[in-house]
C-alpha cells in the first residue's frame, strides 16, 4: 500500500500546529510559526518513510499461515463457507 501525499501533509500540519501551540507563549506567534516548520516537516518525512513498513508489518500478521489448510489443519473443507453449507 502506498502512502498518499495528503496523509503526509496532514501529519506535517498537525505536528506544526501542535509545536506552534506549545511554543507560542515563550516565543510569540511569528517565531513559533517559523521554528515549528522544521518539526512539521520532520514529522511528515518520518511518516512518509516509516508508514509503509508499518503497513507491511500489519498486513503480514493478517495473512493466513497456510492457504491449503484451515486453522485445525484438516484441509480446505474446514472453511467457514463449507461449514455453513452443511
Summary of the model, kept short:
The protein is mostly helical and 86 residues long. It is 73% helix and 0% strand. The chain has helices at 5-27, 29-62, 80-85.
Instruction: Kindly estimate the percentage of residues that lie in beta strands according to DSSP.
Output: under 5%
Please tally the helical runs, counting DSSP H or I stretches of 4 or more residues. Answer: 3
What profile does the largest beta sheet have?
Answer: none
Ranges with pLDDT <50 over ≥5 residues? none
Number of strands: 0
Structural class based on helices, strands and sheet pairing:
mainly alpha
SSE topology string? HHH
State mean pLDDT (0 to 100 scale).
Answer: 83
Q: Work out the helicity level.
A: over 70%
Structure description:
- This protein has 86 residues and is mainly alpha-helical.
- Helix content is 73%, strand content 0%.
- Helix 1 packs antiparallel against helix 2.
- It is elongated, with a radius of gyration of 23 Å.
- The two termini are 37 Å apart.
- The relative contact order is 0.12.
Structural topology:
Blueprint: H1 5-27, H2 29-62, H3 80-85
Amino acid at each position: 500500500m502506498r502512502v498518499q501525499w495528503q496523509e503526509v501533509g496532514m501529519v506535517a500540519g498537525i505536528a506544526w500546529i501542535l509545536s506552534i501551540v506549545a511554543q507560542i507563549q515563550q516565543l510569540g506567534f511569528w517565531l513559533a510559526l517559523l521554528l515549528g516548520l522544521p518539526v512539521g516537516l520532520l514529522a511528515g518525512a518520518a511518516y512518509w518513510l516509516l508508514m509503509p513498513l508499518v503497513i507491511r508489518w500489519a498486513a503480514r500478521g493478517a495473512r493466513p499461515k497456510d492457504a491449503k489448510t484451515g486453522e485445525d489443519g484438516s484441509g480446505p473443507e474446514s472453511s467457514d463457507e463449507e461449514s455453513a453449507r452443511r
